[in-house]
């Protein structure tokens, strides 16, 4: 079963992803260097799809299953 994101917000240290089932994930921005270095405007320019989260201007793609498994962009492939 796929869990879709419905909302994304940021604070100074985390990306907060609200899922359709009501869960809210707080993910360290340090896991995603492109997002950590981005401006608020760049972070706000995202798309949510069945495939995950996408920031066109940053060329950043994040899958919700990866977040649920505690994996960030800085993790090496297992």
Describe this structure in a few short sentences.
The chain is α+β, with helices and mostly antiparallel strands and 78 residues long. It is built from 3 helices and 6 strands. It has helices at residues 33-37, 40-44, 64-68; strands at residues 5-10, 14-19, 24-28, 47-49, 52-55, 60-62.
What does this structure look like?
The protein is an alpha+beta fold. It has a single domain, classed as NE0471 N-terminal domain-like (2-Layer Sandwich). Helix content is 19%, strand content 35%. Strands 1-2-3 form a three-stranded antiparallel beta sheet. It has a three-stranded antiparallel beta sheet with strand order 4-5-6. A hairpin with a 3-residue loop joins strand 1 (5-10) and strand 2. The longest helix has 5 residues, at 33-37. The protein is globular, with a radius of gyration of 12 Å.
Residue stretches low in confidence (pLDDT < 50, at least 5 long) are: none
The CA-CA distance between the termini, in Å, is 22 Å
Order of helices and strands: EEEHHEEEH
Write down the overall geometry: globular
Largest beta sheet: strand ordering: 1-2-3
Rg over C-alpha atoms, rounded to the nearest angstrom? 12 Å
- Given this structure, which CATH class is correct? Alpha Beta
Q: Give the tally of β-strands.
A: 6
- The name of the CATH architecture is 2-Layer Sandwich
| Averaged pLDDT | 90
Number of domains: 1
Q: Approximately how much helix is present in the residues?
A: 10-25%
